[in-house]
Every structure is written in C-alpha cells, then in structure tokens.
Amino acid sequence: MSDLDSNLDPRRWRALFVIALAQLMVVLDASIVNIALPKAASDLNISPDNYQWAVTAYLLTFGGFLLLGGRIADFVGRRKVFMFGLSGFAAASVLGGVAQNQGMLYGARALQGLFGALLAPAALSLISVTFTDSKERAKAFAVYGALSGVGASIGLILGGALTQYWGWRWCLFVNAPLAVVAVLLAIRNVTESKVSGDTRYDVPGAVTATVGMLAVVYGVSQASTHGWHAAKSWGFIAPGFVLLTLFIFIESKVTNPLFPLRLLTRIRSGAYASQLLSSTGLYGLFLFMTFYFQDVLGYSAVKAGLCFLPFSLGIIVSATVASQLLPKVGPRPIGTVGLSMAAIGLLLLSTLSVHVPYLTHVALPMLTMSLGLGQVFVASSSTALFNTPPHDTGAASALLNTTQQVGGSFGTAIQNTIFATALASYLASHHVMDKPMPSHLGDAKVHGFDMAFRFGSLALAISALLFFVMVNIDRHHLGQHDESANVFI
Predict the structure, then answer these.
(1) What's the pLDDT score for residue 153?
(2) pLDDT for residue 169
(3) From CA 308, how far away is CA 287, in angstroms rounded?
(4) What distance in Å separates the CA atoms of residue 358 and residue 353, rounded to the nearest whole number?
(5) Are the beta carbons of 342 and 369 closer than 8 angstroms?
(6) How far apart are CA 311 and CA 246, in angstroms?
(7) Which letter does DSSP use for residue 486 in this model?
(8) CATH architecture assignment, domain 6-191+258-477
(9) Predicted TM-score of the model (pTM)
(10) Which of 50, 176, 197, 453 is the most buried (most CB within 10 A)?
(11) Which of 12-21, 87-96, 112-121, 272-281 has the lowest mean pLDDT?
C-alpha cells in the first residue's frame, strides 16, 4: 500500500453516499413541487400570478443565505452543520406538507431554502476535504454533479406519482424519511472538519446580499403584472441593485468577508458566471412544461412526470461519460459543448404548439438539453473549487450553489414575466382579451412558453461562450494547486 493510499479515509465512499443522498433530496425538492403545484393551487386557492412563489420562495432563501451557510459550515464544523441542515430541512418539509393556505406553504418553502443553505455548501465542502486524490475527487464531483442535474427531473417524475396516488402533500412529506436515513448514516461515516483562525461572521454582507436579491426578484415578478416601466417594478429592482453593489463594497473592506473577492480568479469566475446564466435559462423549463402537460394538454400528474423521463436519462448518461472524459480532456471542452447542446435543445423546444408530436418536438429537444447539461454539471463542480485555499472551501462551495439558486430564482421570475407579457400580447392581437375561448387560451399560453424558452436559450448560449473564454484549463491543471490564475478583483 502506498503512502497516499494509507492517508485516504477508508469511509470516504460511504460518506459520499450520504452526501449524495442529501444533495439528491435538496435538488429534488427544487422541482418536485412544480408537478404538484396545479393540485396544491386548487386546494389552497392560489392564483396563477402567485404560482411561481412556491418555487421562488425556496430558491431565493436558498441562494440568499448560501454564502453565510458556507461560512458557518467552515467555522462551526462541516459535519455538524450538514446534519443540522438535514434535520431542519426535514422539519420544514413536514410543515409545508400540512400547509392550510398559500402563506403557510410559501413560508415552509422559504424555511426549506434556509436550511438547504446550511446543508448544500457543507456537503460540497465535505467532498473536497474527504477526497484528497485528484482522480477520486473527479469521480466524487461527477456523482455530485450528476445528482444536481438529474435530481430536478427525478423530482418531477416522483412528484407526479405522489400527487396522483397519495396527494400533493406527500411531495413534501417524502423528505422526512430521506433525511432520517442520511443523518443516521452521517453519524458513522462522515468525518468532521473545520477551519481555524479568524472565525468572525460578516453580518452586514449577509443582510445586504439577501435583501438585495429578494428585492430584485420581487421587482421582476411585479413586472409580470404591472409592466417593466411601473414604479412597483423598479421601486424594488433599483434598490435591490444598490444593495448588491453595497454588498460588493462591504466585501472589499471587511477583514473576514462572507464572499472573499480573492475567490474570483479567472477560472472560478468563469464557472460561477456560466452557472448563474445557465440556471437563469433553465429553471423556467420545469415550471412551464409542467403546466403545458397538465393545463394545456390535460395530462394526469403521473403522465406529465413521465414526459420528463428523457431529460433524466440523458443527464445520467452524459454525466457518466463526462466523468470519464474529465481527467482526459479537462473541463473546458466538456462544459462548452454541454452548454451549447443545452442552448440548442431549449431553442428547439421553443417551437411548441398545442398540437405537436411528443417525440420530435418535446422528447428530442429535452434529450438534447439533458445530454449537454450532464456534462455541464460535472465540469462546473470540478472547476468551482479549483485551487481554493482550505480556509475558503466552504465559501467557494456556497458560491457555486448560490449562483445556481439565485440564477434559478431570477430566471423563473424573468421568464414568468416574459410569459405573462407574451400571453397578453397574443390575446390582444387576436382580439380575445375579455373572454377567450379555451383553444385561444391554450395557444396563447404556449406562445408565452415559447418566448420564455427563447430567452432561456440565449442565456445558455452566452453561458457557453463565457465558459469557453474564461475556464482556460486543461486536464493537466486539475491536479495542481497553485494560485497563478489571474484574479479579476
């Protein structure tokens, strides 16, 4: 046995199973409510204008507190925070499952996001510190990356089955047994780790970042009702951007920042920026396609969930292949090709109408997207922590998750606004605003979906360009640990 082998944690693969189970639960929950939303909205009297908040309330608190969650994991202990986050996530899920009105549901979803913000960066940091061998770390990140992608589509399939046969509330209850199993396994198999030294928290940074992101997303959502030029829209968007600018200023001045600007090397910035844009373009897909299948086509929840099966299978296949290719070709070609395929697939999906063949106009575009996205998740996970100092591992992990969740919440709000605007424009142009026929309303909704998907395709295409230009490392760099990359800020 080599010295390297003797230093490896013998429980590392069991620990990866625990971390993967927790990651699957968190990512799955971001989409599982989508498929249950039509039933939940009927039971809780939720209006169409407020549908998106069942998703956005989760994504926004998740993204808003991830940076703070990463720092807490670093300072308090990654294993301890991981288990606390799991337990809290399960409790919030049960609260959502017993919700009696939309406010209670949205509050529970926000709490899920809050505990997820503790859980997710701790999980990614645990992978980084548990797998010290570069080849094993690549495999571990491949598992993590694959689950990040496939969890969303699995959530839609599982959510369809639970909604139809047990009721929509079980889409939330299901997290409790998963969390219990993960906590019990973590006690025996996950090793504690934390940093030493300066462990003060950046509270002003946490407040400005979270409130700023909340204001921007809320303002964008208001634009779907009141228009982009309305005071109710920019009255939130403008202060939100001011707060986010103040957040960057604070981070450049405090001694122990929530978001260390030294993390923004060229390579990591490319990974974060491409993740932000790809999530902006992607997340609306699940919400809109769910309503396309159930509201427009009249499919059952189970059938609607199964319609996402090509997406799940494509990600499993492509993530497996990408994990094998990563040590051989590096992340740059894998991420660039993957994002380009996803952009093409979403553009093809924007040709939907009420009466189109499923195989050619839905399954094929979804498969094209997923074959690309599986590569993206593997490439992004491997580069986001490239050359990260041990003291900043939690913050770097949190930033990767933050860009995904914030991009998702921004993207959902923007695409919902595009959808609502396009729908109203279509009805007006066909002179059916007052009492549209069901056929006209279906056509108008699909037109709105198509416009939202075209925006998403553009975001993915820009993401591919950024990844190619900025993530300029090849396979030879993956095992190196120097800080020679250019720092942007």
Answers:
(1) 66
(2) 92
(3) 12
(4) 11
(5) yes
(6) 40
(7) P
(8) Up-down Bundle (1.20)
(9) 0.76
(10) 453
(11) 12-21
Task: Show the 3-state SS of 118-146.
Answer: HHHHHHHHHHHHHCCCHHHHHHHHHHHHH
Q: What's the pLDDT at 149?
A: 60
Nearest to 205 by CA among 168, 158, 260: 260
User: d(Cα 126, Cα 231) in Å, to the nearest integer?
Assistant: 45
Alpha helices in 330-392 (DSSP H): 331-349, 358, 364-384
Nearest one of 309, 320, 361 to 152, comparing CA atoms:
309
The residue that leads in pLDDT, 61 or 401, is 61
Q: What is the CA radius of gyration of the chain?
A: 22
φ, ψ (nearest 5 deg) of residue 407:
-60, -40
Domain ranges of the chain: 6-191+258-477, 202-257
- Collapsed DSSP state (helix, strand, coil) of residue 487: strand
CA distance 254 to 256: 6
Mean pLDDT of the 255-279 span? 80
* Distance separating alpha carbons of residues 398 and 65, to the nearest angstrom: 9
- Report whether 425 contacts 445 (CB < 8 A): no
Integer distance in angstroms from the first to the last C-alpha of the chain? 44
Is the per-residue pLDDT at 88 higher than 70? yes
> For residue 40, what are its two tokens?
């939940």
